[in-house]
């Protein structure tokens, strides 16, 4: 093989590798879903041992899914504790609500106990649902984004600026703004 041909093949191989890496980063850094988009169905195991599917709630009640990066980290601990401590405000509404990460179910079960979560923390270790929601980042973790899904399965609101210390209160306020029905006594 000539020197020119070897150089060409070398550059072609490097170009192919760079293109493949760029394509994979693009998949990881997809934009989160927007208001009006259909929410992707998911089937994820909760910290309570049950499996939850978005389709189980379709036509029945809205769903809130608050993605967080990693269990047992400071910001995520604050957020999940706030969801538990301020959960009484969320439970006024006829809604199913969850936090979620790409941690495995065992880790999230331990994490749920550590923050006294009285709601399920969903696990997406395959990262497929995080990718579908557009929250998987280049580090392989979910970005901190909360999705409000109406009972028809459409994205009603997206919160990309989560205040970890008062997220439960903020979720309740957003549910009120969205006109979600309060539970009947």
CA-atom Rg in angstroms = 20 Å
Coarse shape = globular
How many structural domains? 2
Overall CATH architecture of the largest domain: 3-Layer(aba) Sandwich
Order of helices and strands: HEEEHHEHEHEEH
Distance between the first and last residues' Cα: 82 Å
Kindly estimate the percentage of residues that lie in beta strands according to DSSP: 15-25%
CATH third-level topology of the largest domain: Glutaredoxin
Strand arrangement, major sheet: 2-1-5-4-3-6-7
CATH class of the largest domain: Alpha Beta
Helix content: 25-40%
Q: How many helical elements?
A: 6
Unreliable segments (pLDDT under 50, ≥5 consecutive)?
17-29
Sheet bearing the most strands, described? 7 strands, mixed
What does this structure look like?
The chain is α/β, with parallel strands linked by helices. The protein is built from six helices and seven strands; from the N terminus they run αβββααβαβαββα. It has a seven-stranded mixed sheet, covered by helices on one side. About 7% of the residues have low confidence.
What is this structure, in a nutshell?
The chain has 185 residues and is of the alpha/beta class. It contains six helices and seven strands.
Features:
2 domains; 7 strands; 17% strand
Topology summary:
Layout: H1 3-28, E1 43-46, E2 51-53, E3 63-67, H2 74-85, H3 87-90, E4 96-101, H4 105-114, E5 121-123, H5 128-133, E6 145-149, E7 155-159, H6 167-177
């Amino acid at each position: 093989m000539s020197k020119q041909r070897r150089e060409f093949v070398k550059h072609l191989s490097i170009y192919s590798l760079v293109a493949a890496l760029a394509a994979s980063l693009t998949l990881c850094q997809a934009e989160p879903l927007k208001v009006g988009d259909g929410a992707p169905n998911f089937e994820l195991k909760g910290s309570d041992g049950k499996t939850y599917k978005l389709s189980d709630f379709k036509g029945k009640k809205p769903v809130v899914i608050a993605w967080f990066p990693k269990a047992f980290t400071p910001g995520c601990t604050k957020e999940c504790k706030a969801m538990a401590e301020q959960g009484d405000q969320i439970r006024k509404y006829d809604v199913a609500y969850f936090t979620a990460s790409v941690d495995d179910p065992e880790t999230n079960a331990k994490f749920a106990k550590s923050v006294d979560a009285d709601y399920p923390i969903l696990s997406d270790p395959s990262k497929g649902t995080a990718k579908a929601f557009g929250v998987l980042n280049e580090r392989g973790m979910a970005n901190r984004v909360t999705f409000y899904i109406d009972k028809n399965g459409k994205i009603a609101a997206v919160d990309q600026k989560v205040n970890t210390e008062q997220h439960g209160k903020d979720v309740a306020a957003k549910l009120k703004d969205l006109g979600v029905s309060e539970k009947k006594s």
